[in-house]
Design a protein that fits this description.
With 319 residues, the chain is mainly alpha-helical. β1 and β2 form a beta hairpin. It is 71% helix and 3% strand. The chain has two domains: 61 residues; 238 residues, MetI-like (MetI-like fold, Orthogonal Bundle), CATH 1.10.3720.10. α4 crosses α9, α5 packs across α9 and α7 runs parallel beside α13. It is flat and about 100 Å long. The two termini are 46 Å apart.
């Protein structure tokens, strides 16, 4: 018994020592923890705490009665959305717009970073980078106002140029076929410069000896980009692609909603705008929450699938 008690006491003593070390380490790094505290509080309040309200999707929720006064209906609202005549159209609009964005908007920062990396004059390079970053800091309301003004049939500069060539003005935002190109072009303009930062950081980490070896082997500039630069940032591209696939069903709400009107709604109605209209405009909180949860589950499945395929074929993964 004495041997057992001694072992227990030693175990307790070790635990106390470990706990004392942890406390000492935390105190030594207290300023670092204080710096991360606002981020932790932000995620707890705005990301994790709202998850408790996802239960609304399974109730006929009455905001004044709360959960106790609301009827539990199970998957009723999910079935309502799936049987909605507009379900296929909304899903198609969301997927199609995001797939186009994946092809063009996602690749634009990569190409821009590669082009910037080839510029040898640092002053000119910095000027180009600064100018390309600026659209990212513009409010989405300002961006959509600029788009509306530039494309206006009466005062827009685009239509002024069209009239100069003798053609009739075009109401771009009033024609459904122009909505997706407008979204893509404005998305590239707004995010290309800012999105290139992470790829420029990855390019800075490529060993210069690889380029020297490529030059010795007779590789030209294009071959250096093809066989040294792109493989050097391939892991970064793959990680960003996985994250982008996770957002495949999440179109930016603000720009879509602000550019949406009765004439282009056939191609502009997406999941995020549908959730807003059901939840805020129609006060159908249960259906809106069900659609949002449906979107989140599908996004999770997509990112996990993309991550597994990436880990299998490229040995790059998030976890």
């Amino acid at each position: 018994m004495e041997v057992i008690n001694i072992k227990k006491q030693k175990k307790v003593d070790r635990q106390k020592v470990d706990l004392r070390r942890v406390r000492t380490k935390i105190w030594a790094d207290r300023y670092m923890y204080l710096m991360t505290l606002p981020v932790v509080v932000y995620f707890l309040i705005f990301k994790y705490w709202p998850m408790g309200w996802l239960r609304i999707a399974f109730y006929d929720f009455k905001i004044l009665r709360g959960f106790k006064g609301s009827t539990f209906v199970g998957l009723k609202h999910f079935k309502t959305f799936l049987h909605n005549p507009d379900f296929i159209r909304i899903m198609w609009n969301t997927l199609y717009l995001n797939i186009l964005s994946l092809i063009f908007v996602f690749t634009a920062p990569i190409l821009f970073a590669l082009l910037l990396n080839e510029i040898s004059k640092n002053k000119f390079k910095k000027v180009v980078q600064t100018i390309s970053y600026l659209p990212h800091f513009l409010s989405m309301v300002v961006v959509t106002s600029m788009i509306t003004t530039f494309l206006s049939p009466s005062i827009g500069i685009v239509n002024a140029i069209i009239k100069k060539f003798g053609y009739e003005t075009i109401h771009f935002l009033g024609r459904p076929q122009y909505f997706r190109p407008i979204m893509l072009v404005s998305g590239i303009w707004q995010g290309m410069g800012w999105g290139s930062i992470i790829y420029l950081s990855a390019l800075a980490g490529i060993d210069m000896e690889q380029y020297e070896a490529a030059v010795i082997d007779g590789a030209g500039r294009f071959q250096q980009v093809l066989y040294v630069t792109i493989p050097g940032i391939a892991n970064t591209i793959m990680i960003m692609l996985i994250l982008q696939i996770g957002n495949l069903l999440s179109v930016g709400f603000e720009k879509v909603y602000l550019l949406q009107n009765a004439q282009n709604i056939a191609v502009s109605e997406v999941l995020s705008t549908y959730v807003y209209k059901m939840g805020i405009q129609s006060s159908n909180y249960s259906l809106a929450t069900a659609v949002g949860l449906f979107n989140a589950i599908l996004s999770l499945i997509l990112v996990l699938t993309a991550n597994r395929l990436s880990a299998k074929y490229s040995e790059v993964s998030l976890i």
